Amino acid sequence: MDQAERHYREYHVPLARRLPGLRRYVIGPLVATRTVPAERHRAAILGFDSLEALRAAYGSPVGQELRVDEGNLLAQPRAILLAGEEIL
């Protein structure tokens, strides 16, 4: 395990799991495609009860620390927000 992966698993993931109001947390490897660069190795799905809960979580001290750490892990952190989930 390289240093970045160790940091991700031993520091970043436990920190993210402490986000207030977090209901779901899934991580996994990404597959490089035309739209996903090869240097992006992982993605995470974080679930909250509402957009307000997500905003409150990232406004908390833990959320602020997590954002700083995202900047340490990624040159260009990126988030995609979904407003709901449909199971078909």
How would you describe what is shown here?
The relative contact order is 0.18. The protein has a two-stranded antiparallel sheet with strand order 1-2. Helices cover 42% and strands 14% of the residues. The chain contains three helices and two strands. The mean pLDDT is 86. It has helices at residues 3-17, 51-59, 61-73; strands spanning 24-29, 42-47. The chain has a single domain (3-73), classed as 2-Layer Sandwich (Alpha-Beta Plaits), CATH 3.30.70.100. The longest helix is centred in the first third of the chain and has 15 residues, at 3-17. By secondary structure, the protein is an alpha+beta fold. It starts with a helix and ends in a 15-residue tail after the last helix.
Give a topology summary:
Blueprint: H1 3-17, E1 24-29, E2 42-47, H2 51-59, H3 61-73
Helix pairs in contact: 1-3, 2-3
- Please give the radius of gyration in angstroms: 14 Å
CATH topology: Alpha-Beta Plaits
CATH architecture: 2-Layer Sandwich
Distance between the termini: 37 Å
Query: Structural class given helices, strands, pairing?
Result: alpha+beta
User: Which strand order does the major sheet show?
Assistant: 1-2
The tally of structural domains comes to: 1
Q: Which parts are unreliable, with pLDDT below 50 for 5 consecutive residues or more?
A: none
Q: Count of DSSP helices?
A: 3
Reported for the largest beta sheet, the result is:
2 strands, antiparallel
Shape: globular
The overall average pLDDT, rounded, is: 86
Order of helices and strands: HEEHH
